[in-house]
Amino acid sequence: MSLPLVSVIIPTYNGSKRIEKTLQSIIAQDYENIEIIVVDDVSTDNTVEVVQNTLENSGRKFQIIKRTVNGHQSASRNTAFQFANGKYVIFFDHDDLAEKNFISRLCGEAEATDADFVLCNYYHYYENENKYVPICLSFKNSPAPSEDYLLAWTKEDNMTLTFWTIWHCIFNKNFLEKNKIRFPEDCYLAEDVEFMLKAAAFSSQISSIGDFLYTHVLHSSQQSQADIERRSNYKIFEQEVLVMWRSARCIIKHTKNKRVKNFALTFCIARKLIQQLTRAAKAGDREYYSLKLKHLKHKKIREIFFGTGKFIFKEPELFFKALTIIFAPGLYFKMRH
User: Fold this and answer.
1) What percent of the chain has pLDDT over 90?
2) Which of 89, 125, 144, 329 is most buried by its number of CB atoms within 10 A?
3) In this structure, are residues 248 and 257 in contact, taking their beta carbons and an 8 Å threshold?
4) What pLDDT digit, counting tens, does each position of 48-85 carry?
5) Distance between CA 217 and CA 215 in Å, rounded?
6) What's the rounded Cα separation, in Å, for the pair 82 and 176?
7) 271-286 burial string, b = 16+ CB within 10 Å, else e?
């Protein structure tokens, strides 16, 4: 039986110091039928040269795509997706590593279960501390309906806090194409969350593997200075609210479970909006704070804030914050400033 082609997509920007080790990890996979697609997002170092030298004698199929405009990871992944020829796609970070059987196990599970996507357990590796932290995501009963994962998300246990990342998964490409699931190119935060939430909402079945097959490397040079500046700017967190809005709409439309719908729309949206207001208050930015308060003029937003009462036993502080913002926004500003 012929093995289905798996496209491994790797976006990179100035990754010359780390991408060779990552590529060697993929080259060493015990799965034969893969293609490696590297998208260079207008690097200013010799990343492309390193990639070319590493792959040209690897015996692996590969493509190197050079973007002409810097668009960050989302745009690079979407670009690569257009060129992917595989039945399955994997989105690999340019500084991460995987066990030799990472692809064979994921692909084998996808073929055996006909799941829309498959995920595995993984490690966070803190390079500066030389410390591995295991992240367990697998369900005991697998494959499982996507609703099981979304329900687990509402409980926010360890599994769900780390589930919404993409690099430990394999996706059926036709499933992504049919449902038009892509990465949002207008945001730099939580793009993985939106992609995964939409994938879960559209999916009929998700499977998981209990082995730890992927290592997500965390290191001090991971973020560019521009990324650090964006993340330190509290206004950029508007993107997280938009991510949750879009994800919630998708979940509400495609999921039948009422708890999941309420959690997506009420709890998550309210929390993101309150986080925005809190950050603005802490920064002493009354103008921006007042601008965000205008959202409360909309009936739907007020309903969402009041709706946090449904989750009072889960996070009571959120409900009382919501009430304070609605009835005493000036007091909330003073309390948080």
Assistant:
1) 67
2) 89
3) no
4) 999 999 999 999 999 999 999 988 899 999 999 999 99
5) 6
6) 12
7) bbbbebbbbbbeeebe
